[in-house]
């Protein structure tokens, strides 16, 4: 895969990466989260994307569903990767986040009970984009486009040339290298600093990563009364440091290594 990674490293963000109006946040203040849908149907493929508002460091995880439990597990691994938890996380109208908007008054929403419990456990406040204003989470939206054209499309093209289809196992193995060596090491168009370098500053303002959430996901049916978040939840007095969690065990697909080396040696586009 080293030849493919060298090729991916040459692909840079386009000059239109950043809009004219930008909304900046303080270190440790905000993370923006979004799903990217690459395939639907019987063989789906999605990417969970999270970007820190200050440093612009991003985390990506490829999955085969967008269930609430999957969303929570992706959050846990993202916080581990960043080295801490932000104060607020910004979302659009995901059904795994919010069931009804403004049900108790303006800005007082009915949240998914399982995810609400997880947010309290982790110590972050759920924030929603304004209706029809998804661009308010523009940092992760712009990163999503960069991920698609600079990582996903080249990798899929290389595999398609030899009759292979990208799966979550291979995508996650490759995207970790791409994030560490390319995406989070590039000079960011807005900050003019490498995201990884800025993360060193932002980590001082992040909350401690809690122990793994042990709650259960209930059916997301409307209920008569749900808690309303108006302020960021307080941190517990004592937080146990979380044990290192490995990504779920995945078998090594050596066939990809072999075939992609053949592609590079043979000059397949």
UniProtKB/TrEMBL annotation:
UniProt domain Integrase catalytic: residue ranges: 23-203
InterPro entries assigned to the protein according to its UniProt record, in alphabetical order: Integrase_cat-core (IPR001584), RNaseH-like_sf (IPR012337), RNaseH_sf (IPR036397)
Domain of life the protein comes from: Eukaryota
TM regions (residue ranges): none
Ranges in coiled-coil conformation: none
Protein name as it appears in the record: Integrase catalytic domain-containing protein
Biological source species: Linnemannia gamsii
């Amino acid at each position: 895969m080293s030849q493919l990674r060298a090729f991916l490293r040459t692909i840079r963000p386009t000059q239109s990466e950043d809009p004219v109006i930008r909304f900046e946040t303080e270190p440790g203040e905000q993370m923006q989260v979004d799903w990217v849908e690459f395939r639907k149907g019987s063989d789906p493929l999605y990417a969970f994307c999270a970007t820190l508002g200050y440093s612009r460091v991003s985390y990506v995880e490829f999955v085969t569903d967008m269930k609430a439990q999957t969303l929570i597990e992706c959050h846990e691994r993202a916080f581990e990767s960043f080295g801490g938890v932000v104060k607020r996380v910004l979302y659009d109208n995901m059904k795994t986040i919010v069931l009804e908007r403004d049900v108790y008054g303006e800005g007082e929403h009915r949240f998914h009970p399982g995810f609400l419990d997880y947010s309290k456990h982790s110590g972050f406040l759920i924030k929603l984009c304004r209706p029809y204003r998804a661009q308010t989470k523009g940092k992760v939206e712009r990163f999503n486009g960069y991920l698609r054209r600079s990582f996903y499309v080249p990798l899929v093209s290389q595999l398609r040339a030899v009759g292979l289809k990208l799966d979550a196992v291979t995508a996650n193995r490759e995207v970790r290298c791409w994030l560490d060596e390319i995406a989070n090491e590039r000079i960011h168009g807005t900050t003019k600093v490498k995201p990884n370098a800025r993360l060193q500053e932002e980590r001082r303002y992040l909350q401690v990563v809690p122990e793994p959430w042990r709650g259960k996901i209930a059916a997301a049916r409307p209920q008569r009364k749900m808690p309303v978040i108006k302020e960021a939840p307080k941190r517990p007095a004592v937080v146990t440091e979380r044990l290192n969690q490995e990504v779920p065990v995945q078998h090594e697909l050596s066939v990809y290594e072999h075939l992609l080396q053949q592609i590079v040696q043979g000059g397949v586009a």
